[in-house]
Fold this sequence. Notes:
Helices cover 38% and strands 16% of the residues. By secondary structure, the protein is α/β, with parallel strands linked by helices. The chain has one domain: Aldolase class I (TIM Barrel), CATH 3.20.20.70. Strands 1, 2, 3, 4, 5, 6, 7, 8, 9 and 12 form a 10-stranded parallel sheet that branches. Strands 10-11 form a two-stranded antiparallel ribbon. A hairpin with a 2-residue loop joins β10 (285-286) and β11 (289-290). It has 10 helices and 12 strands. The radius of gyration is 18 Å and the shape is globular. α2 packs across α8 and α7 (195-206) packs parallel to α8 (236-249).
Amino acid sequence: MVTFKEAADIFYYPFFKLLRTAHEIHIQNFDEQSVQISDILSIKTGGCSEDCAYCAQSLRNGTKMPKQPMLDLKNVTNAAQNAKERGASRFCMSMSGRRPSSDEEFEKICEMVKAVKNLGLETCVTLGFVTEQQAEKLKKSGLDYYNHNVDTSPEFYPNIISTRTMDDRIKTIEIIQRAGINVCCGGIVGMGETNEDRIKMLTLLANLSTPPKCIPINKLVKIPGTRVDDSHPIDDFDFVRTIALARILMPKSYVKIAAGRNTFSESTQALCIFAGANALFSGEKLLTVDNVKNGADKNLLDKLNIKIEKTNHA
Length: 314
């Protein structure tokens, strides 16, 4: 078990010592010259009853996002094929809402998982709460990863969400892991939390009985009408420190730069990769927010002499 003090001491290392430490741990566990690429699609958008302060899809925020019914299997399969052609090895399907609304809806999702798996891609979904039986069905359908972020520290969490607790999230993670599915779990930074909150979030993840296989670190994308659209943005160096701490505390996990990457310079992204980030979201859209432009990742990775990972690690 790692303590908060131990993690904080690492976070506040002199910057270059922190980067060096994280990089040395990274190259002991991964190929430093490769990154894993994922793509993500919103298969059902808007109309969510949860009150996540950062989310455009919540009915409780003032964003007035149009509600989109669940996409059909053909559209999802076509999107996955396009993602594969762009270099993605994992395709993530995200559904708005607290949980699947019906058995029929859940069965459609299982069919999507099977179809994407048949394309030779790793599969990932985020569906909110699921039962033990649903988790087992997803596993049998070919699901490799389940995304269920804790979002922030336990202490700051009530400022962001009131409709589900941190304990609810941990219980869902435990259900997924018992079914033999890899967990993708991280958080969002820049919502008004402190560095101490970021350290506590990563300490929580590191102290899970099994740390997440993939840790997405999202920089808040401010959306007008949400309750955190006026929060102070995270400093780039603090973001890099967060990446480095994730790598040091969870050396065998993939650390992913997720939403907000389009706001970082190439130099900041390079620092993140040196500090241990080895996974990226591709595509011009991440659910409801913009991502990097087509061709931007190839330009960056070429400059860094980094290749896209093709090996299946599920």
